Amino acid sequence: MNISKSINMQERARKRIPGMTQLLSKRPDMFAPGVWPGYYSKAKGVEVWDLDGNRYLEMSISGIGANILGYADDDVDDAVHEAINTGSSSSLNCPEEVELADLLCEIHPWAEKVRLSRTGGEAMVIAVRIARAYTGKDKVAFCGYHGWHDWYLSANLGTENALGEHLLPGLSPCGVPKGLTGTALPFRYNDIEELKNIISKNKSELAAIIMEPIRGAQPKPGFLEEVRSIATETGAVFILDEISAGFRMNTGGAHMLYGIEPDIAVFSKALGNGYPIAAIIGKGDIMESAQNSFISSTMWTERIGPTAALATIKKHRSVDAGKHLMQIGKQIQKGWEMLAEKNGLKLNVGGIPPASHFSFKYENSQAMKTLFVQLMLEKGFLASTLFYAMYAHKDSHVKQYLQAVDEVFAKIFTLNQKGEIEKQLKGLPASEGFKRLT
Ligand SMILES: Cc1ncc(COP(=O)(O)O)c(C=O)c1O
């Protein structure tokens, strides 16, 4: 397979763009350095073409979960083309933003007001600002990943590695004002005692409790309910980050499946099927605090984002995409487990089915993962240890994929027995955690 154009582009990017890409999760060294194509010329449905014209079946991160329906979905793109043809921005506001706000509140009847922005991390900054404005307090308790911004990275100020368990080990808060030290306090998912401990020491200073409704593990019975009541008792705004979980199992926030009502929920990623859009929805009095602060940006007013979101939600709802994504994801998880057993490999499989992941339970797991990516590329698949389902994935794609996985697992088992995994790699093993690119 020739990927010379893709490799040349990677060389150019390395020289010109610090860190090479704008998103850590799309850096080629996170997959298989030297063999992962890294750049695409075209994407449609479940297919992706690299710069050298090689065609792949997408069975990896699917635009890191943004392309929930599939690449270049005709229904969404038709709506977007119409928005472009009729002017994607002007001195006046687009009505689509009001329609989107109405639709999000219709889907989530507990929410009364909505602000829109364009990226997930940025939308979380807005949610945190609103919570701080509403309560007049500074500190936040959080669990999980919520973006790259100061409020979040400040958790690593003055500590060894607070974010190691929530995001990645090795993240430096370099550039984050030291004055934010002690304002973002982490607790672990399903660990109510850890949250209670934070509350006991910071009760009068807490503006918000921030978490994803679900990520890897299922919530323990009563966990989400207890967090909800702790937030109510302390007067902290309960913010659910639905940027990754939302629109993956159902049409709307995952919290609806667990019968939990937050004070604010934040969406992005799947909301626009790959077009930039994010939404902060919440209870009326809390959201109104946005007016006591200053939260405003030119590009939050363009028309493509809300147009794409409206088309995505309407299609998602009409085809019951959540059901399909669950069905596809379950097949993948079952397939990995069954094929690992068949081929004598030890795997950990986890995640909600539409956002599944596995890891090799071996000391050289990174090298094994890299070889998996490399061998799957040779068979025409973009594949890694993460799988995000798209509506465009059909049972036939899963079948094709699992057949290839069977062959690749068999090969990995044999090579591992012989101690030859590293020898087979065409490049270095994939990076683990955050590593500076030189
Ligand atoms: C739960 C969660 N919050 C926030 C973000 C950040 O969103 P973005 O990458 O759009 O800034 C992500 C991205 O992966 C996420 O999964």
Structural write-up:
It is a single chain. With 438 residues, this protein is of the alpha/beta class. It has 2 domains: 174 residues, Aspartate Aminotransferase, domain 1 (Alpha-Beta Complex), CATH 3.90.1150; 214 residues, Aspartate Aminotransferase, domain 2. 37% of the residues lie in helices and 14% in strands. It has 13 helices and 14 strands. It has a 7-stranded mixed beta sheet, with helices on both faces. Helix 3 runs parallel beside helix 9 and helix 6 packs parallel to helix 7. The model has no long low-confidence stretch (mean pLDDT 96). The site of pyridoxal-5'-phosphate (PLP) has 12 residues, from helix 4.
In short:
It contains 13 helices and 14 strands. The protein is an alpha/beta fold and 438 residues long.
Oligomer: single chain
Number of helices: 13
Distance between the termini: 27 Å
Query: How many domains make up the 3D coordinates?
Result: 2
Gross CATH architecture of the largest domain: 3-Layer(aba) Sandwich
The name of the CATH superfamily of the largest domain reads Type I PLP-dependent aspartate aminotransferase-like (Major domain)
Reported for the largest beta sheet, the result is: 7 strands, mixed
Low-confidence stretches: none
Helix content: 25-40%
Shape: globular
Structural class: alpha/beta
Helices and strands, with pairings:
Blueprint: H1 4-16, E1 40-44, E2 47-50, E3 55-59, H2 74-85, H3 96-107, E4 113-117, H4 120-135, E5 139-142, H5 150-153, E6 184-186, H6 192-202, E7 206-211, H7 223-234, E8 237-241, E9 264-267, E10 278-282, H8 284-288, H9 304-319, H10 321-342, E11 347-350, E12 355-360, H11 365-378, E13 381-383, E14 386-388, H12 395-417, H13 421-424
Parallel strand pairs: 3-13, 5-6, 5-7, 7-8, 8-9
Antiparallel strand pairs: 1-2, 2-3, 4-10, 9-10, 11-12, 12-14
Pyridoxal-5'-phosphate (PLP) binds at residues 119-121, 124, 145-147, 212, 241, 243-244, 268.
